[in-house]
Amino acid sequence: MARSRSSAPLHVALIGQQFMGRAHSNAWGQAARFFDLPRPVVLDTIAARDAVSLAPFAQRWGWTRWTTDWRRLLTDERIDLIDVGTPNDVHREHSLAALDADKHVACEKPLAGTLADARAMRDAARKAKSKTFVWFNYRRCPAVALAWQLMREGRLGRIFHVRARYLQSWGGASTPRVWRFEKKRAGSGAHGDLNAHIVDMARFLMGEEIHEVHGAVARTFYKQRPLPQAPAGIGAQGKAGGKRDKPATGRSDVDDCVLFLASFKSGAVASFEATRVATGEYNGNGIEIHGEKGALRFDFEDMNVLWHHAEDLGDQAGGWKRIMVTSAEHHPYVGAWWPEGHVLGYEHGFTNMAADIVATLAGKKPVVPLPDFADAYETQRVLEAALIAAKERCAIKLSAVR
Asked: What is the predicted pLDDT for the residue at 109?
């Protein structure tokens, strides 16, 4: 049985050893080295299919045990939390089984590949005694957490505009057709992979829900992709074809980009854009929020900086202020890390989240709110509404997407 609200060691098991497996392994292993955790973390078991690479992976990342049968985790009484770092189509199976076994669950985003799977996961979490978490790691960039705090203080006043975009370029013509380009496994393409992050970030910062999607455009620019020979990283996962032969191709049936317009319940208007084919962009995850009293701007490629404009300073002293979010005294999460000005990177958001998960399971309050299955389901509803809007070429109220 999963143990909560205690100082007992938290035994974690992870399913998956690819890109997210590495990020999550590093987070669980690093959390206690930098944060004063109320419960020590034990990297108990890693489960994955590739028996050849599994033992070296476990040894490298500090996992005590490994198995190719993830179901063994369900009956292991030592394990408190199961971390699901697998492709989207099996999130439901792994998460529901873990909840049924009375384990806490931390699941990768998006919550699932389909709205039906996400709904089933939300409903199961509602009935479960254990807690759920979803790895929307960008909430835990110190600059984003600071933006959340400033908005809770009313620094921006009434909000008028939200502009969010997530631009990458790795999905060009030569990118092999890995699982991220298969609808039956991924659910969608750039939409579920990238728009999920910025929809969550917008909902998180605004503290309210999206009311309506007014219109959307989805495009698949590359409908055939070379078939991979061997797995590798997130984008160029495997080399396509041989040196002399023309590579075999397979159908890509997910979006390469999705853009949509929306509005929040308060009336603020929003735009969202996600693409894997924005030439020259690498990880252009950014958001701007404009209100009656001020504005905020964040770009993950400069992740230690938050830009703030305060309208009450007037034209003489006003303008955009660059906040270097590295002060242990004033900024969230930073006190656990390095001296001021010594910047953080991508992996630190995961570690900050692991620390907040442990705090929550010990009955303490996280630095900023953690997304659970119910929260992530609301993001999934927005994603679904955008896909319907793109297909039907019409506006979709969120009340119609359940």
From this structure: 97
- Rounded-to-integer distance, Cα 181 and Cα 17, Å: 19
Given the structure tokens 């061997």, which residue do they identify?
230
Q: How far apart are CA 53 and CA 137, in angstroms?
A: 26
Distances (CA, A) of 210 to 140, 296, 386, 393: 22, 19, 11, 19
Cis omega before residue 247 (within 30°)?
A: no
Residue 136 to residue 149: CA distance in whole angstroms: 17
Start-to-end CA span in the chain (Å)? 32
CATH topology for the 139-344+366-373+378-391 domain? Dihydrodipicolinate Reductase; domain 2 (3.30.360)
One fold for both 10-138 and 139-344+366-373+378-391?
Answer: no
Amino acid letter, 67: T
Three-state SS annotation for 36-96: CCCCCEEEEEEECCCHHHHHHHHHHHCCCEEECCHHHHCCCCCCCEEEECCCHHHHHHHHH
Q: What are the structural domain ranges in the chain?
A: 10-138, 139-344+366-373+378-391
The ranges of the chain with pLDDT < 70 are 1-5, 230-245, 316-317
Domain 10-138 sits in CATH 3.30.70.260: no
Long-range contacts (CB closer than 8 Å, 24 or more residues apart) made by 308-316 = 308/150, 308/155, 310/155
The string of pLDDT tens digits covering residues 74-96 is 999 999 999 999 999 999 999 99
pLDDT at 315: 73
Under a CB-based contact definition with an 8 Å cutoff, are residues 280 and 274 in contact? no
Token couple for 19: 């890109």
Whole-number Cα distances in Å, 18 to 55, 58, 150, 255, 307: 14, 12, 36, 23, 34
pLDDT 10s digits, 332-368 = 999 999 999 999 999 999 999 999 999 999 999 999 9
